[in-house]
Amino acid sequence: MRRRECRAIEPLLYLMREGELDRGEAETVGRHVAGCGTCSALLRELRSMDGALERSRAALPEHPHAAAGVAAVMRATGGAEADSRRRAWRGESSGLVGWARTVFGTAAAVATLLLALQSVRDMVQLSALEAHLAVVKPGKDAALRDRLAIARSALQQASPPGVLEAPSAAGLAPDLRRLIASIGGIGGDRAEGWMSALADRYPALATVDPGDGLDPRERAILQTEGKALLEELEQLVNNGEEKP
Amino acid sequence: MGRHTFHTLSGDDASGAALVARCVAGDRTAFRQLVETYQPYAYALAFRLLRDPDRAADVVQESFIRVWGNVESYRPEGRFTTWLYRIVVNQGYDAMRRERRHGRLFEREGWGEHAVAASGSADPERRLEAADLAERVLQIAALLPPKQRMVFTLRDVQDMTLEEIAEAAGMSIGTVKTNLSYARKRIREALNRLEGTDAQA
Fold this sequence. Notes:
The complex is a heterodimer. Chain A is mainly α. Helix content of chain A is 72%, strand content 0%. Chain A has 2 domains: 4-58; 106-242, no CATH class. Chain A has helices spanning 4-13, 23-34, 37-58, 66-76, 82-105, 107-116, 118-136, 142-158, 173-182, 189-201, 216-242. The longest helix of chain A has 27 residues, at 216-242. Chain A starts with a helix and ends with a helix. Chain B is built from 12 helices and no strands. Chain B is elongated, with a radius of gyration of 19 Å. Chain B has helices spanning 4-7, 13-24, 28-50, 53-69, 80-99, 104-107, 111-117, 124-128, 130-141, 146-157, 162-169, 173-200. Chain B is 76% helix and 0% strand. Chain B has 2 domains: 1-100, Rna Polymerase Sigma Factor, Chain: A, CATH 1.10.1740.10; 101-201, Orthogonal Bundle (Arc Repressor Mutant, subunit A), CATH 1.10.10. By secondary structure, chain B is an all-alpha fold. Chains A and B meet through helix 1, helix 3, helix 4, helix 5 and helix 7 of A and helix 3, helix 4, helix 7, helix 9 and helix 10 of B.
């Protein structure tokens, strides 16, 4: 067990980069660490974590649509039409993630939509997953993101005309099936229900091998987080049903 | 190298202030120039906070709209970048809070076990790479509560000083330190839970 002094000093140990401790604090920490193996090990660990981060510091992420970004700002600040145009641009640019965010922000609207349209419910779940992926594993999820986009198109295609704008997307069912299989662990029964409901609507789903998947760590994270998301979504739906 | 992103800008600050002055007079050309010059830096900051290109782009757009709407409140004795970053940080913080998913992984018991239960097959060599470690740290950081995540990102990724963070986030230095210390503690603990279970597997 660590000594009382270690516990007292711990919050300061975590402030280990240049300029984070004042002189007195630095001296206290220095004295303690010199005589304490546990704390000096912790300090080394923290320094190696910081060393690993150095590369992310050097790399400056680039705006993917820099010119469009400037143009959008100019439009948005420019005049009477600005607002509607800005929204149009945002709609294009933020895609599913933006869509999910909008949806999460307006629970009542979602609930109404969901009551009216099962396909919208499917969309919300997909969108939630995509939004989630953006948070949990950005940069590494291009393939899964693509599949989510495909699934989205498939749902759009199948939904009543005018409700969701549908680009033509033939033959998407196999991808959709693989997608669902890959996230199938989420929410257990609920995911099963969702899958069979989709299979009813997309007969081709039944014929695709569900073997395709995520790496185990990704799956585990998705399971935990995805479950919470689905619960959140379900709550939204239930609230709407109570008071339509 | 660490100061790279924040401080390469300081040379431009005089021109930033000059451009803002022209914006106050309604000069659209100056505003366009301002957006073109500073958008890359605003974007880098927003992306680091949100780790999502589209949402970062949205935050940058909202931020510059605010810059245009509030040019009169800019005080030329302060650096333009400091002022801009404060706006971006505010917008970014709001965006983080809208996610409503933060902290879940930490609140749920047994997260470490869950997250690695099936990860025995992960390549052990890969785990040792610094890049991979950084990536994991950033993934874990993305799940911290917004305030801790913000302070951690501004300090350890964006490499701002504590004073700059305090200014941008509207916090006292003490609050910045507390959040930073706690963020690193949580990240380290989450990392160890992952590594620990990996080692047993």
